[in-house]
Amino acid sequence: MSLIINALCINCDVCEPACPNRAISQGETIYVIDPARCTECVGHYDEPQCVVVCPVECIDPDPAFPESHDALLAKLARLQEQDA
């Protein structure tokens, strides 16, 4: 499942550089996560790094994008092929 940043975001700038898939960018008012690039850090870390570094706990699972662990690994493989 992709993650989503909620309205509690304070634009502290710590999540964007923590993302190994470059899925996080500055949105119109708060940071946003691109569900096509978010793998919840599966294949990189044991837990999502944006969640680890977020000081206000504003990152939640995005129910609009349910994905299994295997689907997240497959997405990571596709991203690595694209970015090569």
Description:
- 29% of the residues lie in helices and 14% in strands.
- It has three helices and four strands.
- The protein has helices spanning 15-18, 49-53, 69-83; strands at residues 3-5, 24-26, 31-33, 59-61.
- It is globular and about 30 Å long.
- The protein has a two-stranded antiparallel ribbon. Strands 2-3 form a two-stranded antiparallel ribbon.
- The model has no long low-confidence stretch (mean pLDDT 96).
- The two termini are 24 Å apart.
- With 84 residues, it is α+β, with helices and mostly antiparallel strands.
- A hairpin with a 4-residue loop joins strand 2 and strand 3.
- The protein has one domain (3-83): Alpha-Beta Plaits (2-Layer Sandwich), CATH 3.30.70.20.
Major sheet characteristics: 2 strands, antiparallel
Determine Rg (CA atoms, Å).
12 Å
Mean pLDDT across the residues is 96
Which H/E pattern describes the elements?
EHEEHEH
Q: How many DSSP helices?
A: 3
Low-confidence parts:
none
User: Which architecture would the CATH scheme give at its second level?
Assistant: 2-Layer Sandwich
The first-level CATH class is given as Alpha Beta
Structurally, the number of domains stands at 1
Distance between the termini: 24 Å
CATH fold title: Alpha-Beta Plaits
Number of strands: 4
- Work out the helicity level: 25-40%
Percent range for β-strand residues = 5-15%
Shape: globular
